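Ligand-bound model needed. adenosine-5'-triphosphate.
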Amino acid sequence: MTTVADAGPAKDTRARLPIAEVRWSTVLAPLVVGVVAIAAWESVVEAFDIEPFVLPAPSAIWEQVRLHGDSIASGASVTGRNALIGTLLGAVLGVAGAMLAGSFRVVDQMAAPVVAALAVIPIVALAPVLYSMFGAAVDTGRIIVAAVSVTIPVYLNTLRGLRQVRQVHLDLMTACAAKRWQVVRTVTLPTATPYVFTGLRVASSLAVIAALIAEYFGGPIGGLGKSITSSAASSNYPLAWAYVSGAIVLGLLFYIVTLLVELWFSRHLRPT
Amino acid sequence: MTNPLIQPEPLGQPAIQVRGAHRVFGKGRKQVDALSAVDLTVADGEFVSLIGPSGCGKSTLLRLVADLDSPTSGEVLVFGKSARQARLDQEYGIAFQQSGLLPWRTVAGNVELPLKLHGINSEIRRRRVAELLELVGLTDFARSHPDQLSGGMQQRVAIARALAESPRLLLMDEPFGALDEITRERMQNELVRICAETGAAVLFVTHSIPEAVFLSDRVVVMSPRPGRIAGVVDIRADGLAAAHDRSAGVREEEGFFRAVGEVRSLLHGTPETAAVARGVDHR
Ligand SMILES: Nc1ncnc2c1ncn2[C@@H]1O[C@H](COP(=O)(O)OP(=O)(O)OP(=O)(O)O)[C@@H](O)[C@H]1O
Ligand SMILES: [Mg+2]
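Prediction:
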């Protein structure tokens, strides 16, 4: 095989995330903007002597974060747990539903109006109803709210992914006389997988928001949402803002983890 | 289209027999006669190219043989069996125009796919994949993914995959269509070598006249609307060696240019020269 000379230099072809290609400027620019914004915020509050109930200074919020770090962390773990269980449940439901709708046209047609309705209803609005259904002493209502918010984007994206199967891949399977389940396993599911995780990435932030807002409507205490409302009610605004920062960090965490998973599963798909 | 004087009597069943195949797409006013009254026989071990303008039904004919589509009327036999039975028995390997590799599998994973689907154990699979990658010169890339390969390398992976089960018949739909001239000639030389090694019959779709002439024992020229066979040029009648014994030097020989001329005149449908070319075929 000496006639083939275009093998090129043996490069490291191990699979990796496309993170190495991210340029410094793309990371640095938002960081600079953030630092500048916080500095401006601090100086504006200082210069105009703004009351804390209007807008507390970042330094005051930071102080509360340091003082109540444990409480913020435990609140984040309660809310995060609800969001996580909801995400997993919703993902399973969404994928299972999409697989059904992908295989049976009837299911797809029956589901379409329900999905459209669920996609426009703010799901958290169901929280008070769910509290009375399952009792206000348990987290069930919050988990359901998070799960339903996740189900819809995961369902829609997975269904889209299942329809991206290329004709040439199906022809190949036919040519190999592959069985039906072999086609599903070798072609259909791997094609849809990156789309499932795109749906999950979109849904993960929704799950945190849903789990957090659901706490505003009642239920057991301990979560970030409840802590935000109660510290605001007792006029401890810097503390309320400290809990809000906890919620931001929690949302970001969900987003980043699902983003990394998505990147991993689409690492061999060239952007087109 | 068989020629008893030139073509040695095939020992077993011919690789492909297409008899009176019609394929009509659509209904009513949108009806397209993709293939009309096509008769074609490819002997065991013979290399036959299909050439013709875009839309004349080359892919359709190939898909009929592969049982990826069925004729509206007529009969397609592969090694004496129905096309469907031949597909179920895995009598052919196929390479598509787009390589059709699975992007989430490694090169080795793609090549071993047919074996895996048929439950061949992993030790045999591993050895066969090593053999095939050696054959197409991609041993160093076994663990790469298709997106890390050039177009020509992807095409070679697809060819290795088509060869995985040592089929006696290879179906190839413009496998080198997307390649540059240099890579293309190199791949053609490779294909001749591979065919000589495996002794497989090949049905090869192409747009390139020199490619068809260089690779084939016979070139089948098709014409569009309705898609039918305009004529057949037997390359061996032009004094060229049988396809399996070709060397790159053939491209310089006088017979090569004569054959190219015959195919070209058939393609352009010039009446007199076309008659001459048909005369060559039926001599
Ligand atoms: N699935 C289909 N449905 C309807 N018409 C089709 C279908 N497949 C092919 N045709 C028609 O049949 C004719 C022949 O198509 P085919 O793909 O076989 O051409 P081809 O010779 O392979 O062309 P090319 O060289 O461009 O690949 C075309 O006119 C095309 O429009
Ligand atoms: Mg074609």
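The radius of gyration of chain B is 19 Å.
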